[in-house]
Design brief:
mainly alpha
Length: 162
């Protein structure tokens, strides 16, 4: 299979190969041996090195190694900085989550306290209402007793003169 295409290479051979002009030129130079050190380092030669013929493989390799080490150090530094940024961001988010959880707990406790106060108030009102109803029943019964007593007395008074 072709690296760029999901289908088999034989099916898409002509269309799959996208050639970059610069890449193609460098490959032809490498194949022809032009611009590349033939003494052993295999590095590309600059125009000055090719014209003067004073290419030192050791110096060229040191230069490449220093550039790679510098790039590696830069990447490591960037990695450390990104890790620090992510750690700070994570700590910030955790602090926000903790603050929100605390706020939610406090809010829940406050609502429970209010609910308890409302329940106590409703219970108090229910007791007062029950007390009023019991008084009303007593006073109504007392009034009826008094009325019936007065009626009984008045009937006795009417019977007595006879």
């Amino acid at each position: 299979m072709c690296a760029d295409c999901p289908t088999a290479r034989a099916e898409k051979e002509p269309t799959c190969q996208v050639l970059n002009r610069g890449l193609m030129e460098s490959q032809t130079e490498l194949q022809a041996g032009r611009g590349v050190c033939q003494r052993g380092c295999g590095l590309r030669l600059s125009g000055e090195d090719m014209s003067s013929g004073q290419h030192c493989c050791v110096e060229a390799l040191r230069t490449v190694t220093e550039a790679l080490e510098e790039r590696s150090a830069t990447l490591e530094h960037e990695t450390r900085m990104q890790r620090l940024r992510w750690n700070r961001r994570e700590q910030s988010l955790l602090a926000q989550v903790t603050a929100l959880q605390t706020e939610a707990q406090l809010s829940a406790l406050q609502h429970q306290r209010r609910l308890h106060q409302y329940m106590l108030h409703i219970h108090s009102l229910a007791e007062q209402l029950t007390g009023y109803c019991q008084r009303d029943v007593r006073t109504t019964a007392d009034i009826q007793n008094k009325i019936s007593d007065k009626e009984g007395e008045s009937q006795e008074q009417f019977k007595a003169p006879e």
